[in-house]
Write a structure and sequence with these properties.
This protein has 292 residues and is of the alpha+beta class. It is elongated. Helix 2 crosses helix 5.
């Protein structure tokens, strides 16, 4: 069996505490942000020093040297961010380290797939939830970094959230962790701890960083070409519609378990007088699609 090398155990890695300690200084964070905002890279030492406010050149040089190697790359032409440095600045921009905003609940402009009442969106603890106050049905609750709220109207926030959920679940279904790119394992669970009101849940767990997320089975079909074409034939652009508008995405009312060993799950998608049925396996790969 091929050995699995974990990032923490690699001889090329710093200990996590040591890596975090390197950026625990305002001047070092300012250096990373200056490189991030630079119009042209690499940035010469003199220009970088002029951009970052420090008391003395030796002090600046000390902090820059501490960053070089792990977060900053030194070249003959100057300095530029390494991937680790980019991740730090992206986390700052996203507000993941230092922002904890609260957004008052507001109506989404869409109707509940179960009772037809107006849906509500709420945001807290870096998670956005779509639910129905009238009947209590949950239409999804997923992570959404604070940076996604900035300079956006409520409608734009909802659109961004929809796009994020689609893309992250697409990665998870493909076996790639959205957080660390490690191997993602898919498991079908009955009546699990997921916040969705469904009996059958798809639970994705990363073998490396243990990031996990759950969804309905139907959500895995949003990017399937046969499903997209099915809606297009009926004059509907599936990509532009928000996922919580489709009952087969937020419930398991149209999901039927044909067998569990091996897993065979059928998802029926009704549209006008037509129905598309997709059969998936335990990894949520589509085995067969047919119009009924």
């Amino acid at each position: 069996m091929e050995a699995v090398i974990r990032a923490q155990e690699s001889e090329h890695c710093l200990r996590p505490a040591e890596a975090f300690s390197l950026i625990g200084d305002e001047t070092r964070v300012a250096i990373l942000e200056a490189l991030w905002n630079a119009d042209d890279t690499p940035v010469p030492f003199s220009r970088l020093y002029e951009t970052v406010e420090t008391d003395t050149s030796p002090q600046f040089n000390y902090h820059l040297k501490r960053l070089t190697g792990q977060f900053v790359r030194k070249t003959d032409a100057g300095y530029e961010l390494r991937t680790a440095g980019e991740h730090v600045v992206r986390a700052i921009v996203a507000g993941s380290f230092n922002a904890h905003p609260h957004l008052e609940p507001f109506e989404t402009g869409d109707d509940c797939t179960q009772c037809g009442s107006p849906l509500r969106a709420s945001y807290d603890d870096e998670r956005l939830a779509i639910d129905c106050p009238a009947c209590g049905r949950t239409h999804g609750e997923y992570s959404f970094p604070p940076g996604g709220l900035l300079d956006r109207t409520r409608d734009e926030i909802l659109t961004a959230f929809d796009r994020r959920v689609r893309r992250l679940h697409c990665l998870a279904t493909d076996g790639v962790c959205p957080a660390c790119s490690g191997r993602m394992r898919t498991e079908l669970v009955r009546e699990g701890d997921c916040c969705l009101d469904v009996d059958l849940q798809a639970v994705y767990t990363c073998e490396q960083c243990h990031h996990s997320r759950c969804s309905t089975v139907g959500l895995a079909l949003l990017d399937q070409s046969a499903v997209v074409a099915f809606y297009r034939d009926h004059g509907i652009d599936l990509e532009s519609a928000r996922y919580w508008q489709f009952d087969w995405c937020v419930s398991d009312e149209y999901t039927t378990v044909r067998s569990t060993d091996p897993w065979r799950i059928a998802v029926s998608i009704p549209l006008e007088d037509d129905t598309l049925e997709s059969t998936l396996d335990g990894e949520l790969s589509v085995i067969e699609t047919q119009r009924l």
